[in-house]
C-alpha cells in the first residue's frame, strides 16, 4: 500500500505525538525536539499502553505507564521494562503534509 496522509505538519507541535490508525495499525506520529517527524508503533511492547500519550524528549518517546523509552529512529527500547522494539514506519513530508506508509517498516 502507498503512503497515506495523516495530518498537516503544522498540526504537530515540537516534542509532541499523535495517534493515528492506518490499516488497523496504531501508529504514533511524533515531532522530535529537532523538528524531525517520525512514525513508530503506538503500542508499548511491555504492556498494551498507547505510546502517543507518553512524553517526547529529544529523540525518544517514553511510555507514560512504566517509563520505557523508545528511540524514534530505530524503535529500540533504551531501558526496561520494555526489551522488544516497536516498528518504525517510513515518513514523508510533502507540501506541508505528513504521509506514513503502514506497510513500509524500517529495520535498522
Automatic annotation (TrEMBL):
Domain Rieske span(s) in chain numbering: 4-100
Claim: Metal-binding is one of the keywords in the record: yes
Record carries keyword Iron: yes
An example Gene Ontology molecular-function term: 2 iron, 2 sulfur cluster binding
Pfam families according to UniProt: Rieske
Alphabetical list of InterPro entries matching this protein: Rieske_2Fe-2S, Rieske_2Fe-2S_sf
Annotated protein name in UniProt: 3-phenylpropionate/trans-cinnamate dioxygenase ferredoxin subunit
Taxonomic source organism: Microcella putealis
Amino acid at each position: 500500500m502507498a503512503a497515506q496522509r495523516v495530518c498537516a505538519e503544522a498540526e504537530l507541535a515540537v516534542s509532541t505525538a499523535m495517534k493515528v490508525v492506518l490499516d488497523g495499525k496504531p501508529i504514533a506520529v511524533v515531532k522530535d525536539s529537532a523538528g524531525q517527524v517520525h512514525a513508530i508503533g503506538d503500542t508499548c511492547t511491555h504492556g498494551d499502553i498507547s505510546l502517543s500519550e507518553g512524553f517526547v524528549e529529544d529523540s525518544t518517546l517514553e511510555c507514560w505507564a512504566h517509563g520505557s523509552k523508545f528511540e524514534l529512529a530505530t524503535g529500540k527500547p533504551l531501558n526496561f521494562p520494555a526489551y522488544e522494539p516497536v516498528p518504525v514506519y517510513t515518513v514523508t513530508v510533502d507540501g506541508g503534509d505528513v504521509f506514513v506508509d503502514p506497510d513500509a517498516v524500517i529495520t535498522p
